[in-house]
Design goal:
With 293 residues, this protein is α/β, with parallel strands linked by helices.
Length: 293
Amino acid sequence: MDIAVFGGSFDPPHVGHVKIIKEAIKTLEVEKIFIVPTYLNPFKTKSYADAQTRFEWLHVIFKPYKNVEILDYEILQNKKVPTMETIEYLDSIYDLDKIYLIMGADNFLHVSSWYRYEALKERVIFVIASRDNIDIPKNLKKLSINATISSSKLRENMNIAFIPKNIENEIKMHYARKKMEERIGRIVAILDEKKAENIQVFDMSKKDYFVEQVVLATTLGDKHGFALLDHLKTQLKEQGENFLGIDAEGEWVVVDMGDILIHLMTPAYRSRYNLEDFLAHRDEEMRKAMPTE
């Protein structure tokens, strides 16, 4: 049995990955192509989408492709898995002759540093997908795909033109949520570091409200509120955040970031206005305010 193996983070999967599989189907004489999402790339410290989510995305994308299987071996190990271990796993359950290992030209530049590289190169036939005009040795099999997108670039700029159509909404929404979580995390970290108290975050994205997220924090007094505002402006603007409006009156400071609203309130003001209850029950309050027939 001859197979091809195409591993990666697929964080997220994109049209370049689809082009690689289409070209491999046309070019390689194999009975099956295994797409192998990593639990975590051996050369990275984190993934932006969890392993199970990436596995499910790949299933949706490649479901129409005959003899293409999404292999969950590495995900099930719950750890970083070197490629050679995956090859040995496949060798142990199939009667394999040729194993084609598909990788991008950028990854091939560093393949000699991979775990058990000598054993790997003896067992597989490298198949290199062209990328970024990187020279590919003439003695290697080549997949000419001319893809200019990478997962890292796509995370930075979520252009749906590069996302497979049958999964574009799920991928776009997932990374939008992830990016928002990171932004909120930075805000909370700054407030916590500077001694703000009782920090709460309210997700308003599915409620009838004009921002997606609201952050509430209690200050130690007027001066502390102004100091927190200065720290937020200094640190968040360095990270590309925009402040569309600021209403600073000492006891109650409001920062409007367009899709995030931050309230910094003294204990007395926070107790008096009880924004927590209003935000938590926003939908219910709106229904009560609607006129009845």
